[in-house]
Amino acid sequence: MKTSANTSERLIESTRELLWERGYVGTSPKAIQQRAGAGQGSMYHHFDGKPALALAAISRTAEEMRAAIDAQFAAPGTAVERISAYLRRERDVLKGCPLGRLTQDPDVMADATLRRPVEETFAWLRTRLTDVLAEGAARGELSGALDPAATASAIVAVLQGGYVLARAANSTTPFTEAVNGALGLLTAQAATQD
Amino acid sequence: MKTSANTSERLIESTRELLWERGYVGTSPKAIQQRAGAGQGSMYHHFDGKPALALAAISRTAEEMRAAIDAQFAAPGTAVERISAYLRRERDVLKGCPLGRLTQDPDVMADATLRRPVEETFAWLRTRLTDVLAEGAARGELSGALDPAATASAIVAVLQGGYVLARAANSTTPFTEAVNGALGLLTAQAATQD
DNA sequence: GTCTATAAGCAGATAGAC
DNA sequence: GTCTATCTGCTTATAGAC
């Protein structure tokens, strides 16, 4: 058995990086090959073409993101504590969300196969966060007046929008501010609970 | 004087549409010419090249957005009412924000000239919203415990992130939910005020 | 599995005629 | 102002040798 990363593996990882940095439309097979140190023929031997390679890359990114979030939410603590930890965990803010950015890519959104992992992951995340919030409401940590699903969507949107603001400003400040603002609102309404 | 739209005008408008639909990297001079009904030579007569045309398009979009938001915030009403009206105004949700999407474009962000209108518009928007929130706090409509700047960033982020979620889901639902969630939090904390 | 050759078409212009 | 010709290099492969 081989211990070093094989060519197929390097191609997938290179594609993941380039999709994150430049998007699908901005990434050429040639750029992938160069980053992976693989030749033209080698790439087309392992994958049918750019869409197939992108699907492998996007699927892996989606899986990793899901696993990371699952671990985060499974940690002990109140709903607000776990959400706070999730929002404040270390991130490469200026690079943005590797999945969220694909949402702006016309060729990804136009291809049902490429689109599916993106769609499913965000749907799953919103559901997962809704559960955490509903749990918090059931325990009396949060106001029952809040709609858990709406609040969950707002929180995920703050994250995704925070990336947008950070990139626009070329600074992590607006991202941090947005997260603080969201948590400020969440704890301010919790103060209503007494 | 001419009354019909001239070629230069049509080129700018076509570029604006394409930047919105496909981004800078995904838009070719040829596509712009075809949409504008202009020839190659015609385009290069009026503009130095793709970056110059994009700058004209992006600048105009930024100006329009700023004027629209200014009008929105100048309307009468409490801080929460004006913010609610802003968040809930009619939008082409699935198309996303024409300026926010450029944030994901590597070639726009790498070019200081193209980047500036995007950066300035979002900086201005956050400041403007911060003023509205500070005003609300001064009037006693909102809790003084909230940081106006952080809350403003969170609200703008909800909007930008709402677009991302809507595109991921291919549905306006998550956008509406996120807006409702944000307004829910804002009014819930206002309930603390008594 | 990897390499080189080949190819139709697009990207992003420049040059000069009209 | 607009048009056609021309150009270099990239895109996204396919074919076949090694």
From TrEMBL, chains A, B:
Signal peptide: none annotated. Keywords: DNA-binding, Transcription, Transcription regulation. InterPro entries: Homeodomain-like_sf, HTH_TetR, Tet_transcr_reg_TetR-rel_C_sf, TetR_C. Residues 5-65 form the HTH tetR-type domain. It comes from the Bacteria. PROSITE patterns: HTH_TETR_2 (PS50977). Residues 28-47 bind DNA. This is TetR/AcrR family transcriptional regulator. It comes from Streptomyces orinoci (Streptoverticillium orinoci). The lineage of its organism: Bacteria, Bacillati, Actinomycetota, Actinomycetes, Kitasatosporales.
